[in-house]
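Subject: Predicted fold for Nitroreductase family deazaflavin-dependent oxidoreductase, 151 residues

User T.R. writes:
Posting the sequence so we have a shared reference for the thread.
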Amino acid sequence: MPKPPPSTSRYWKFQRQFARFNKFLFRKTRGRVGGTFLGAPVLLLDHVGRKTGQVRTNPLIYLDDAPRLVVVASKGGTDAHPAWFHNLMAMATTEVELPGGERRRVQPRVADGDERAALWDRLVAIYRPYANYATYTERQIPVIVLEPASP
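User M.O. replies:
I've generated the structure tokens; pasting them so everyone works from the same file.
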């Protein structure tokens, strides 16, 4: 069984700092830098903290399933979904920023059944560590479909 990621506060502090730096580079260069992670495409997801009410932005690996976008809620510990997932699912709509500065208004939903299985396989094809991560968590990692929102 693979070793789970470190759960120390220093590790998560580094993760937050890296996400802030990635967001800065992404926006400054319109996705030319920070628009990929280990070869996988990255978008910026805007969401509002449920407890703080603060606007937050997370860089996430995504699958372009036009006109939809697909992301996966992998990081959050081995037994909990990440906070951004809970924040996102509490919102009716939000915005994402794609490389090139394109912004899209989207509404989230969780894929299940055959749709989830098909999308999961495609996500693992673009970012192999998802398959590894799934082997050491008891939870089913959510696959989130970001549908275009009505204007």
